[in-house]
Specification:
Blueprint (H helix, E strand, L loop, with lengths): L1 E4 L9 H4 L10 E7 L5 E9 L3 E9 L8 H12 L7 E8 L7 H8 L3 E3 L3 E7 H10 L8 E4 L6 H14 L9 H5 L7 E5 L2 E11 L2 E9 L4 H16 L7 E7 L1 H13 L6 E11 L3
Parallel strand pairs: 4-5, 11-12
Antiparallel strand pairs: 1-2, 2-3, 3-4, 5-13, 6-13, 7-12, 7-13, 8-9, 9-10, 10-11
């Protein structure tokens, strides 16, 4: 068994395992494929480099090759390929219903020496059309002392502020913030809220599965109103598309942001379709 990087030239061989995910790939993701001893593509995985950890966001084996232990072999090959000087663990984050906590995917990870870690994240799914209908009938809020700015229009000092926020908040139990996600081309609908030449709020909003996902949410003590403005601005940008996605997903970390989301959506009269808690699994890489 060997692994190889999936690219435009070979993705057709891995399409059964990776499906449409490759068409929705993000700039910071690496797609790798598993090739068996007969040189046949049998599996695919998605990896994202983090701070000290490599995130495994997807792993799949083609149907006819399942139940042969290839998933575990794939995990071993991935681990062997990871640079130990940069990463000390492989991590997987699953958003699950409580009833699925002991399902087949957590069981697979645990059988491959992944340990469950505390998590403070939540993913909530909403009917996007309902949100857009509500936004269309509501009065647009305007703030005289703040401005929504797209990442490409930030000044150099403002971009540096984004990285400073990253240094403070990266993967804290009450916040998650990745400057590269905020500043990347993937952030098609989100932005940054500038007030008195300071970054007081930011969020990333990008295409995700059958909808759009809002994540990497940040608000300073005086940035909550700016965060509301960013949310409304993202909905407007989404509504300008030729095809409107079905769902809006919101990923929040920590009680404060989750309470903010609940209050914001409650004020709009919007109830979630579904809410899932994040479960984090990690495997130490060793030497």
């Amino acid at each position: 068994m060997i692994i190889t990087v999936i690219n435009d030239d070979n993705v057709r061989f891995f399409y059964e395992a990776i499906g449409e995910r490759y068409d929705q790939r993000k700039n910071n993701e690496t797609y790798v494929g598993l090739v068996n001893d007969d040189d046949r593509a049998v599996g695919a995985a998605i990896l994202t480099a983090g701070s000290g950890s490599m995130l495994l966001s997807y792993i799949g084996i083609e149907d006819e090759s399942r139940r042969q232990g290839l998933g575990s072999m794939f995990i071993d090959e991935i681990i062997d390929s990871i640079d130990r000087t940069m990463f000390d663990r492989l991590k997987a984050i699953l958003f699950l219903k409580d009833t699925d906590r002991n399902g087949p995917i957590p069981a697979f990870l645990k059988s491959n020496v992944f340990m469950e870690r505390p998590s403070y994240s939540r993913r909530t799914r909403y009917d996007l059309k309902a949100i857009m209908d509500m936004a269309a009938s509501a009065d647009r809020r305007r703030f005289d002392n703040g401005t929504v700015v797209r990442a490409e229009n930030l000044s150099d000092p403002q971009r540096e502020m984004i990285y400073e926020i990253d240094d403070i908040l990266y993967e804290d139990k009450d916040a998650y913030f990745d400057a590269e996600r905020i500043l990347s081309d993937d952030n098609r609908f989100g932005g940054i809220y500038i007030k008195d030449d300071r970054v007081v709020a930011a969020l990333c909003a990008s295409p995700f599965e059958d909808g759009v996902r809002i994540e990497n949410i940040y608000a300073s003590k005086d940035g909550r109103e700016g965060l509301k403005e960013l949310f409304d601005n993202a909905i407007i940008r989404i509504s300008d598309q030729d095809e409107i996605p079905q769902y809006l997903y919101i990923d929040t970390v920590g009680a404060a942001l989750q309470q903010f989301e609940d209050k914001l959506m409650g004020a709009k009269g919007i109830s979630p379709v579904e809410s899932r808690k994040a479960y984090v699994f990690e495997r130490e890489l060793g030497e």
